Amino acid sequence: MGQVRHHDNFPSTPGKVKMDRSNYFGRVTSRWHSTASARLLGCSALLLAFALVVLFRVSSSSDLGDGGYFSHSDVHWAFKPTRVWEKKVRQSCLPRREDNPMVVLVTGAAGFVGTHVSLALKKRGDGVVGIDNFNSYYEVSLKIARQELLAKHGIFVIDADINDAFLLKTVFELVQITHVMHLAAQAGVRYAMENPGSYVQSNIAGLVNIFEICKAANPQPAIVWASSSSVYGLNTKVPFSELDRTDQPASLYAATKKAGEEIAHTYNHIYGLSITGLRFFTVYGPWGRPDMAYFSFTRNILKGKPINIYQGPNNKDLARDFTYIDDIVEGCVASLDTAEKSTGSGGKKTGPAQLRIFNLGNTSPVTVPTLVDILEKYLNVKAKREIVKMPRNGDVPFTHANISAAQTQLQYKPETNLETGLKKFVKWYLSYYGDNTPHESLVAW
Ligand SMILES: NC(=O)c1ccc[n+]([C@@H]2O[C@H](COP(=O)([O-])OP(=O)(O)OC[C@H]3O[C@@H](n4cnc5c(N)ncnc54)[C@H](O)[C@@H]3O)[C@@H](O)[C@H]2O)c1
Ligand SMILES: *[C@@H]1O[C@H](CO)[C@@H](O)[C@H](O)[C@H]1NC(C)=O
């Protein structure tokens, strides 16, 4: 455990060439796609990218400047909508219910939470289209499998980056998006020490791009997006309430989520966007994230490999307010259902708009050793436990949600305890992987 897979946050998927200038950390990231036919294109694009790197290094100033980032993104993504593509987007967005259906753009749709939320919306008859860049932060095959699952249910997931303004504009022109469920992000706390740029790129620049597109749309959609319980950082008062301070993040991940909440305030204030931020508390379940501890524990226990169990100061066990995916989905859908309309028009605010923040947790923290007990029971294998002092890398010793705001305003009521939820996870894990598990993965909370 603790092995880190090295990768680039912009991996390969077929179809297009993308480059973007990243003026925050003074380097240019590039992503190229590699179907056999696109390979040659990729090579020449690489050369071009190289030339651009040199060019931009020379010409770019270091600050964000007056919209420089966005004015460039149109140029650099070589996306061209085809008839087939347009048809897929339209069909995916077709609602199947009469009573006030929504048409939802789900970002991060090939991700863990995005997949479940997309399915739930589609099942009740809403129109849904997804977007995901299929980056290799964790195994891409799992994201593709989720995409295939969604395709079976009539949901199209566009393979693109949320920073691609031109593509997003094209989607908004093609269909009338009423809501955006924004879940795309660079997740994970520890990986931020390895690849800080990916957090800035997806969680800050990407978020701003989403808000820019929504602001300009007519009518503007309402937005629900994923913040994180990690914004509570070094707080010790429990349970964590939305009224508590959130100005002492313990990781860059947390800092980017906190920044997102402030950026949301700005877009709500200036442009009248209706925005709801959701602070998720350690979400787990079927189709979950391999970089998370419950997942990698399962993997290693089955392989007979030792697992590291971290302890905080004074040998205290770490505890998490583990929240089952179905409960999170309920909270997300209820947020969409109760979201008021944005008030802006033509990029201008016409009146005050809704701005909300909710904790979505389970309200009953469980220690890590207890989590392992439950996994042992359902896997029917004894874990090789290694107790290790928690390194100072961004993890906090415990989380515990106060969910009274979500209870009263969203009728949010978590129903699945860790025991029941892990049983369902293990069942899925064994059916998806057999007991044949692939490779090491980064561990996160
Ligand atoms: N799972 C949790 O415990 C948890 C807790 C707190 C907050 N969150 C937040 O909830 C959201 C969903 O998390 P998840 O667990 O489903 O993670 P996930 O990594 O499975 O899903 C995120 C998806 O977004 C995609 N993505 C990342 N950057 C992108 C970009 N620039 N453009 C397009 N797609 C991009 C990824 O490929 C991935 O499929 C994230 O915003 C995450 O920060 C999750
Ligand atoms: C829970 O949070 C609400 C605000 O959402 C606050 O009014 C209440 O006092 C908190 N309860 C506890 C026990 O901290």
Secondary structure elements and their pairing?
Layout: E1 17-22, E2 27-32, H1 36-59, H2 68-76, H3 83-92, E3 103-107, H4 112-123, E4 127-132, H5 140-152, E5 156-159, H6 165-174, E6 179-182, H7 196-216, E7 222-228, H8 252-271, E8 275-280, E9 283-284, H9 293-303, E10 306-311, E11 319-320, E12 323-324, H10 325-338, E13 355-360, E14 366-367, H11 368-379, E15 384-389, H12 404-410, H13 418-433
Parallel strand pairs: 3-4, 3-6, 4-5, 6-7, 7-8, 8-13, 9-12, 10-15
Antiparallel strand pairs: 1-2, 11-14
Helix pairs in contact: 4-5, 4-10, 7-8, 9-11, 11-13
The protein binds nicotinamide-adenine-dinucleotide and 2-acetamido-2-deoxy-beta-D-glucopyranose.
Features:
13 helices, NAD(P)-bd_dom_sf, Epimerase_deHydtase, membrane, seven-stranded parallel beta sheet, 15 strands, two-stranded antiparallel sheet, alpha/beta, transmembrane helix, binds 2-acetamido-2-deoxy-beta-D-glucopyranose, 445 residues, Rossmann fold, binds nicotinamide-adenine-dinucleotide, disordered N terminus
